[in-house]
Amino acid sequence: MFNVKHSEPVVGRAAPLWRADVDTDQIIPKQFLKRIERTGYGEFLFYDWRRADPGFVLDRPEHRGAKILVAGPNFGCGSSREHAVWAIQQAGFDAVIAPFFADIFRSNCRQSGLLAVTLPEAEVKALAELLAVQPEAEVTVDLEAQVVTWPGREIEFDIDPFTRECLLNGWDDVGLVLRQADAIAAYERRRSELLPQAL
Predict the structure, then answer these.
(1) Rounded to whole angstroms, how far apart are CA atoms 76 and 199?
(2) Which stretch of DSSP H or E encloses residue 176?
(3) Distance (Å, rounded) from C-alpha 166 to C-alpha 170?
(4) Any alpha helices (H) in 40-139, and if so which ranges?
(5) Which residue in 16, 70, 143, 146 has the most C-beta neighbors within 10 A?
(6) Are 9 and 142 in contact (CB under 8 A)?
(7) Which residues lie below 8 Å from residue 171, measured CB to CB, with a gap of 6+?
(8) Full-model pTM
């Protein structure tokens, strides 16, 4: 169980990364996947881009400490790696807003408790442009109400009910199974009665 609950809104500054087709190898390069721990990935988020560009958006003082990442279309495409979600979370982000997410990345977000919000491309682009000139603008992502707000704008978002319930309660697949712990234990107690007896 990841125990990250989104029962309270995510409120704070947001960082704009308006690039399309950001794949998981760009989010967390392959050389950092050798680690056996689930922690310590945040410092390597977008490692290659940060090395190549000293003015990379996430390293600018006005965007440090942002809790929400505003990304371009098809965010999280490429290979399946949970490490990409972990790196985003461990860099301090609680939510990502984009016009579209790759399916496996979105699934990994649910499993790890990262809130992935899909909004129309024009809305996300407008928010990214606002943040470029007003980095101090406060953004709120309210999963309970399914609403994102920023100065001068409030917009509802859709999310499937199962993902919403998991994120509100902090359940991954293990957590969902553990909710049935009493029923599983009861089954195990009577299991010998259900199985054929040895001759």
Answers:
(1) 56
(2) helix 173-178
(3) 6
(4) 47-52, 82-90, 103-112, 121-133
(5) 70
(6) yes
(7) 1, 165, 179
(8) 0.88
